[in-house]
TrEMBL record:
<dbReference type="InterPro" id="IPR045865">
    <property type="entry name" value="ACT-like_dom_sf"/>
</dbReference>
<feature type="domain" description="ACT">
    <location>
        <begin position="68"/>
        <end position="128"/>
    </location>
</feature>
<dbReference type="Pfam" id="PF21631">
    <property type="entry name" value="A9CJY8-like_N"/>
</dbReference>
<dbReference type="InterPro" id="IPR016540">
    <property type="entry name" value="UCP008459"/>
</dbReference>
<dbReference type="Pfam" id="PF13840">
    <property type="entry name" value="ACT_7"/>
</dbReference>
<dbReference type="GO" id="GO:0009088">
    <property type="term" value="P:threonine biosynthetic process"/>
</dbReference>
<dbReference type="InterPro" id="IPR049447">
    <property type="entry name" value="A9CJY8-like_N"/>
</dbReference>
<dbReference type="InterPro" id="IPR051719">
    <property type="entry name" value="CASTOR_mTORC1"/>
</dbReference>
<dbReference type="InterPro" id="IPR027795">
    <property type="entry name" value="CASTOR_ACT_dom"/>
</dbReference>
<protein>
    <submittedName>
        <fullName>ACT domain-containing protein</fullName>
    </submittedName>
</protein>
<dbReference type="InterPro" id="IPR002912">
    <property type="entry name" value="ACT_dom"/>
</dbReference>
Length: 128
């Protein structure tokens, strides 16, 4: 795993939304930018651009998204932890999602500057 990652700040605000188990996927979820749905026996969690989420939906708003620009095999160890460790050390809460090829790390918008600084200090290159 490379010591230095190229990480891009996605230019949008995101929401993390909770729905009840068995809910239908809402028609507002798909669209531009990253979006995902996860389901467990307790809940269904949606992530998408905040502008698409109805105000009546239980959501945590104001999240900003970092995308690891390099693509690694799904079994390469340490990629995600090399981003999460400096954020944790800086006292920043995260919500992470992975695709087959890369990782998306969400931080509260109020911690964005602190997150950028922590990642740069750890040797990562941040593009904004």
């Amino acid at each position: 795993m490379p010591h230095k990652l190229l990480i891009r700040l996605v230019d949008a605000e995101y929401a993390i939304t909770r729905l009840n188990v068995g809910s239908q996927m809402p028609e507002w979820l798909p669209g531009p930018g990253f979006w995902t749905v996860s389901s467990s026996r307790e809940e269904m969690t949606l992530v998408c651009r905040a502008a698409r989420v109805p105000s009546s939906t239980q959501s945590s708003l104001g999240w900003r998204c970092f995308r690891i620009e390099q693509h690694f095999s799904v079994d390469v160890p340490g990629v995600l932890s090399s981003v999460l460790r400096p954020l944790s050390a800086a006292g920043i809460g995260v919500f992470a999602n992975s695709t087959f090829s890369t990782d998306y790390i969400f931080v509260p918008g109020s911690d964005l500057d602190k997150a950028v600084q922590a990642l740069k200090e750890h040797g990562h290159e941040i593009t904004i």
